[in-house]
Each structure stands twice: as C-alpha cells, then as structure tokens.
Amino acid sequence: MKSKFSFNKITNRFLVTGLIFLIFSLISACGGSNSSPEGAVDIYLSCAADQDVECMMKSFDPKSMEQAGVKDKMQTMLQASLEQSKGKGEVLKSWDILESKVDGDQASVKVKMNFENGESKEDKVKVQQVDGKWYIVL
C-alpha cells in the first residue's frame, strides 16, 4: 500500500516549518523592543556591540533627527566613537541593565557595560517616550 505522503512532501513541510521557526528566532534575536526604557537601551547597546551605526541611529527619536544637520552629525560622531573604541580595544561585549527609573515620559537606565579588553563601566542612559515608544536622548 502506498503512503499518501511522499518523502519530498514530508521534507518540504519540515523545511518550511524550520524556516518559519528560524525567521521568528531571528526577529526575536534582533534585540528588545522600544516599548520600554530598558528595551530601548538594549536595542541601542546591541547595535553598538555589532558596530552598526545605522542600527544605532534608529534608537534616537526620528523627529529630533529631522532637524537640519543633526542626522549627519550623529552618524559621523557615532562612527568616530566606534572606531576610537575599537582602536583602544574597548569594543562592547555584553551589558547588564541594573536599574531603571521612570518619571512620566522620561527615564534613566543604569547599565553595566563589559568590553572585550576585560574592562567594565557603569553608566546612566537617558531615554524619552515619544508617541508610545522609548528613544535614547541626544
């Protein structure tokens, strides 16, 4: 008696299921969400660890980036900062969010950043909520 399913159909279904799982995993791995102060900082630091200036730029309020010359200046500054850090061996490796203090549409997120050279640093990152989303403050 022949089976209704051929090996190719089973293989195709398995591959499609695997691809769907992979796509959702990649979407989840792209960082947190800017629906919280911690999520906004997590996204920004993830982009910084990847040395991805374009990604980092998305962490700033789009309206503030529309001001004349701000976007170009920020991109130049971020690129120079990443290059300088890389030259010193201070490339971001990992980070821990230590605390978050929210006051209305403003927040401060304390993070501990760990660098590839073994050093670590604590810092506070200011964020602001705009239209329901949290962004790094310039």
Describe the structure.
It is a single chain. This protein has 138 residues and is an alpha+beta fold. It has 2 domains: 1-30; 34-136, Nuclear Transport Factor 2, Chain: A (Roll). The protein is 46% helix and 27% strand. Strand 2 (106-115) and strand 3 (120-130) form a beta hairpin. The longest helix is centred in the N-terminal third of the chain and has 23 residues, at 7-29. It is flat and about 40 Å long. The termini are far apart.
Spell out the key features of this protein.
138 residues, flat, 5 helices, 2 domains, alpha+beta
- Named at the architecture level, the CATH assignment of the largest domain is Roll
Task: Figure out the total of helices.
Answer: 5
By CATH, the topology of the largest domain is Nuclear Transport Factor 2, Chain: A
Order of helices and strands: HHHHHEEEE
CATH top level class name of the largest domain: Alpha Beta
Distance between the termini: 70 Å
Going across the biggest sheet, name each strand in turn. 1-2-3-4
**Biggest β-sheet strands, sense, barrel:** 4 strands, antiparallel
- Domains, number: 2
Our estimate of the beta-strand percent is 25-35%
Helix content: 40-55%
Which spans of ≥5 residues are poorly predicted at pLDDT below 50? 14-31
Mean pLDDT: 81
In short:
Helix content is 46%, strand content 27%. It is built from 5 helices and 4 strands; from the N terminus they run H-H-H-H-H-E-E-E-E. The protein starts with 6 loop residues before the first helix and ends with a strand.
